[in-house]
């Protein structure tokens, strides 16, 4: 390790937007935009990009950036009176210079603390005071951790209720070659059928058409296996009982202006979320929701990946 290793760099990104680059000793990196408090890039120690960002994303506020890890708060989706996915993803966050202490592994050096607070403008549509603290950490092994702490700071004695998601866009080689392990046999709410409830079959989830499902009460660990890339993403989550799986497929992709017509093939959203049971905080209460992403090489075994090994491993 060089003595000059810079773990955290503050600079300008696309469209002159403020961003923070996190770097780790073995070469992995991540980029976080203050606009949206959004992770836009996560690279492994070979410099390979692991997140999908649309080539048509304009990076022009007030539009949310299509890709990376948008934060959906205080509303996931369009069920509610707020704009789709809430407003946190198109607000300018600030650097949090003095966050309350975390009970975590504090040997990590590549991390940034961001904060979003209520504003007069937002109070017109969501009349609450809050502090949303987000820590993004890149571990020495290249794992990416996001921890959200949301506190009700209302002074009028009122509780508030919200839904939430880390809307992860993973970069995949070819959506037809990808499968998800860890969600089989679970119940899901189908966004394509008015959030009706169904039960998933026993097989791993594969993709051959549009999917937009909210799996409820899922295990804390989900694996996304990319056969062609021989790569497995492992998503671990805490405080986030649900998992959303979304791919727009060809017809829907054509209707999304900031997504290339063919780009649906190279993206898959698997999101750590709290949707089915909204979270309510009384004044002074804090909620914490955490996810950890890792990308590990996976190998073939008689033409098939062994998902059990992936799910059992650390
Ligand atoms: O998380 C899945 C989803 O809620 C889909 O319903 C979908 O349309 C999508 O997110 C993207 O939403 P956006 O508002 O970013 O276009």
Describe the protein's architecture and organization.
The protein has 314 residues and is mostly beta strands. It has a single domain (8-173, 239-294), classed as Beta-galactosidase, Chain A, domain 5, CATH 2.70.98. Helices cover 5% and strands 40% of the residues. The protein is built from 3 helices and 20 strands. It has helices spanning 120-123, 249-255, 307-312; strands at 8-12, 18-23, 29-33, 38-43, 71-72, 94-95, 110-117, 130-138, 144-152, 160-166, 169-171, 178-181, 187-190, 196-199, 211-215, 221-226, 231-238, 242-247, 267-281, 286-297. The strands form 3 sheets. Strands 5, 10, 11, 13, 14, 15, 18 and 19 form an 8-stranded antiparallel beta sheet that branches. A hairpin with a 5-residue loop joins strand 1 (8-12) and strand 2 (18-23). The longest helix is centred in the C-terminal third of the chain and has 7 residues, at 249-255. It starts with 7 loop residues before the first strand and ends with a helix. Mean pLDDT is 93; it is low at 300-305. The site of 6-O-phosphono-beta-D-tagatofuranose has 10 residues, from strand 18 and strand 19.
């Amino acid at each position: 390790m060089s003595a000059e290793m810079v773990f955290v760099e503050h600079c300008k990104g696309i469209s002159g937007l403020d961003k923070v680059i996190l770097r780790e000793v073995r070469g992995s990196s991540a980029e976080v935009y203050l606009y949206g408090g959004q992770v836009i890039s996560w690279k492994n120690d070979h410099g390979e990009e692991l997140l999908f960002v649309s080539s048509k994303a304009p990076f022009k506020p007030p539009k949310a950036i299509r890709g990376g890890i948008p934060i959906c708060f205080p509303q996931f989706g369009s069920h509610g009176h707020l704009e789709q996915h809430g407003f946190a993803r198109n607000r300018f966050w600030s650097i949090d210079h003095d966050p309350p202490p975390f009970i975590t592994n504090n040997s990590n050096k590549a991390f940034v603390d961001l904060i979003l607070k209520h504003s007069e403008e937002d109070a017109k549509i969501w009349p609450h005071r809050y502090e949303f603290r987000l820590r993004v950490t890149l571990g020495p092994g290249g794992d990416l951790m996001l921890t959200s702490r949301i506190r009700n700071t209302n002074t009028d004695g009122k509780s508030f209720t919200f839904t939430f998601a880390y809307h992860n866009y993973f970069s995949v080689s070819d959506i037809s070659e990808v499968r998800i392990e860890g969600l089989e046999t679970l119940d899901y709410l189908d966004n394509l059928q008015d959030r009706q409830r169904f039960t998933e079959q026993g097989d791993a989830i594969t993709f051959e058409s549009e999917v937009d499902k909210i799996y409820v009460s899922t295990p804390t660990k989900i694996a996304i296996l990319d056969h062609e890339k021989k790569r497995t993403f492992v998503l671990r989550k805490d405080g986030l009982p649900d998992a959303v799986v979304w791919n727009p497929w060809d017809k829907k992709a054509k209707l999304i202006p900031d997504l290339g017509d063919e780009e649906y093939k190279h993206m898959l959203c698997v999101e750590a979320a709290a949707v089915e049971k909204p979270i309510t905080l009384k004044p002074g209460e804090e909620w914490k929701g955490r996810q950890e992403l890792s990308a590990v090489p996976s190998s073939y075994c008689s033409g098939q990946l062994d998902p059990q090994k992936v799910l059992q491993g650390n």
